[in-house]
Amino acid sequence: MTTATTDTIAAQATARGRAALAIIRTSGPDAISVVDQCFRGADLAEAESHTAHVGYIVDADGEDVDQVVVTIFRAPRSATGENVAEVSCHGGDLAPKLVLQTLLAHGARMAEPGEFTQRGFLNGKLDLAQAEAVADLIHASSTRAHQVSLQHLQGRYSEQLNELREELLDLCGLMELEIDFTEEDVEFADRERLEELLGRAASLLDTLLATADTGETLKDGVRVVIGGRPNAGKSTLLNALVGRDRAIVSATPGTTRDEIEAEVEIDGVLFRFVDTAGLRDTTDQIEAEGVRRAERSIEQADVLIYVYDLQEGLDAEEQAFLRDVADESHAVETIVVGNKVDLVETPSGDGQPARAAEVVDDVLYLSADAARRDVDALEPLRDRLAETVADQLSRADASLIVTNQRHRSHLQSAREAIQNARNALDAGVSGDLLTLDLRQALHELGSILGTITNEDVLGQIFSRFCIGK
Ligand SMILES: Nc1nc2c(ncn2[C@@H]2O[C@H](COP(=O)(O)OP(=O)(O)OP(=O)(O)O)[C@@H](O)[C@H]2O)c(=O)[nH]1
Ligand SMILES: [Mg+2]
Q1: Dihedral of the alpha carbons of 2, 3, 7, 12, in degrees to the nearest 10
Q2: Cα(227) to centroid of ligand 1, in Å?
Q3: Ligand 1 pocket check: which of 369, 372, 373, 374 to mutate, most ligand atoms within 8 Å of Cβ?
Q4: Ligand 1 contact, 311 CB (< 6 A)
Q5: Where is (6S)-5-formyl-5,6,7,8-tetrahydrofolate annotated to bind (predicted)?
Q6: What is the predicted pLDDT for the residue at 354?
Q7: Does the Cβ of 250 fall within 6 Å of ligand 1?
Q8: Averages of pLDDT over each 10 residues, the chain, 469 residues
């Protein structure tokens, strides 16, 4: 990707397709004059920053292309830090394309993915972590993921890292000064302050790192695998949960073979449901492969919904399996669903069947089949699912949740460097060696914020953006 900011770029910032409006953005030294050349309605060259102008985009033959509103932002008071002209034209397939073509014909060049945001970053409008939050915001697939990205964009996360970075930088400078005066045996950097700062750095990094799993959950969603014996009603339950006939349901055991995925937001969090093949020994090769996949999926699940048919009860093998997953050491959180409650007697009238599963304390009794027609019937299950993440979510401060794998690994390395520095300090190691560890920690923090960058990393980050962002 080019980072030269001598040229003027243009792209459609809004999604393609039928819509009332579309926005074509231009940014660069000539952005305003490029639009001015093909605009009839006002003299944009003289227009003040942050003003809007109604008029027409006119092509090279003098034909009107579309009626538009042009908004002018003059450097440095724009999102990119450059001159920006935003043309709001009519939406649809044609108008935005023709307006963009006209601007390109007047000297703008087509923007690359993320190039507007990259220019904003290079001009100091936002740091790298904030730029990444822009991409996350666009890709957010649940309300909470959206909230976290917005908070990151607002910068408190960056602020905390920056404060730490500046303090470390300050101390590092003082210690490096000592190296120049080794003969005189002076200590410019107060060891107590250093110790205190390293302690604080370690605890901030620990706090941040502790949120990384939550961040991953928010970004990627909670993986919920629906498992159980054939015919238990797993596919029916998936369909009820997602509110449409996603999976094939039939009275023939062994219907589902391939895994079937569908997503739903519950309490602002994305849940990815995976319906699997019913677990049983089978000589059918295809079904057997389905069962293998189901077992693997269950191992990798965040949450397992184990469905059984109340008419059948839980057999010995299932009981042993559930005892095993209930074991604390097991990572998979399990919700046991006793299905087809409509087909068994519930003598006490409280919806509890007579043959309650003695082996498992906590069974949710329901009728997946009835739930397809009555959304409220799944409320208890949805609540249980929400509970599986409620704890970690309530503990974490949204503005400080680490949602990015790249950040996580830099934070881990920074934490190690800080630990090395603390050990060195305890061992009374000389200042110059301590500085090496501090420099390493600074490097890691700088890589997150983008004060230290390399082309490849930038290219990778900004290529995730869409064109026009
Ligand atoms: N009466 C009643 N029937 C149900 C209920 N849930 C599922 N069924 C029926 O049970 C049969 C099996 O349902 P599926 O959802 O295909 O079961 P499955 O667990 O996905 O089965 P496999 O894909 O073969 O492993 C179908 O005939 C469903 O209509 C329920 O709550 N009540
Ligand atoms: Mg099925």
Answers
A1: 70
A2: 13
A3: 369
A4: no
A5: 25, 86, 125, 469
A6: 61
A7: yes
A8: 71 94 97 97 96 96 96 97 98 96 96 94 94 90 90 91 90 76 62 88 93 89 95 97 94 94 93 95 92 92 94 90 76 90 77 63 91 91 92 79 92 96 88 88 94 81 81
pLDDT at 361: 75
Give the domain-ending residue among 387, 410, 428.
387
Count of domains observed in the chain: 3
Determine the pLDDT at residue 186: 60
Asked whether residue 201 falls in the same domain as residue 233, the answer is: no
Does residue 219 form part of some domain? no
Counting ligands in written order, which one lies closest to the CA of residue 294?
1
CATH classification at residue 180:
1.20.120.430
Q: At what angle do helices 431-449 and 405-426 cross, to 10 degrees?
A: 170
Indicate whether 436 and 312 sit together in one domain.
Answer: no
With respect to residue 206, please indicate whether it lies within any of the assigned structural domains: yes
8 Å CB contact between 245 and 197: no
Range of the domain at 185: 133-211+401-450
**Closest protein CA for atom 1 of ligand 1:** 340
Are 191 and 324 members of one domain? no
pLDDT at 469 (0 to 100): 81
